[in-house]
Amino acid sequence: MPTATAAPSQAYLDALKVLDRYKTEGVTRAESDDFIKGAINELDNDTGKFAEDIGQVSTWAIQVDEAFDRVIRGLTNLVTEFGSDFPSLNDFLGEWKGYNQRWITHLALSRDVASEYVSVLQRFDQVFLDMVGMIQTDQDRQDVITEFGAFANEDHDRSQEMSDGFMNLKTDIEDFVVRFDAYIEKTSAELQAQATQLQKQIEKLKSLVQDLDSAIKDATVALLDSAEAAETMVGVVGIAVAGTVLAVLIAERLVNIIALGNSQRELEDVNSKQEGLAKIKSEFDGLRPDIALICAKLVLFAEIWSSVRDQTVHFQEQLKIGLDQVNNERFKLEIELARKLCKPLIDGLNKYTEQLVNHPAR
């Protein structure tokens, strides 16, 4: 019986109403100020959890990397054992090796981009945003506007390459998995049909051998006549006098025993193929949500420079308003939030880079 869906909480329903108001009326400045102050308070009280959460992405990345390797080994084993029976498996293996190489390349790029962003964020915080607090004169303001402009125009576009790479890989893998699932389903159905047919054949041969055993016993007893007490010993020894009914029956039994053995080996082979396909499908089923999650997270990493650049341009435009803007409470709040966000991002990206560097290369 399916689990009943929990009714939405009143708090959730109230939140949806507020969200609807945001969409139609916008957010009041007081609400926005309160949110920024709340975010700053959370960052002030942070004990390293935000950085740990960011660094956790490296753990997911390593798990996905290991999953790629398991899938390659699984497919390789299938091709080695059953490639002659299923030529398409070799095509899937070749395609997956290509995805694996792309993953390795993009993962290495993500490590380099994360390291680059640590430097970018440190400069954003300790150089450019720090300048704002030192503005005393209008010339200072003009100098900071110029510095902000130069910083915003820097080239850190490898992040876009990384973002596109992961998203394209995610799309290609999703397409691959759909095709591979269809192949597995079709092949598994064919194997199941073979297994069912072989099982019926085995049962039929077993029954036939049992009938022949009974007939051989009856023939042996009849031919021994008064010496029928020796039937068991004759049967164990396997004596078959040429030209007798017994010889014909024993020969027929041998033919069916050989056929039975062949059918049983065929069934074992079919079962082995089914187990191999089921195992590799399980690996793909586990990898599919992981690759979607990690790609989404790494795409967010790629957008850090875009966020820094947009904030830099925003602060530059605010300073263009005039010297009084330096003491504007809202402006100071936004600067403070930007600076406090840099630390967990820097620490988290450092953790990400460190764990990937320490992860053994494949």
Automatic annotation (TrEMBL):
Residues 184-222 form a coiled coil. Keywords: Coiled coil. It comes from the Eukaryota. This is Uncharacterized protein.
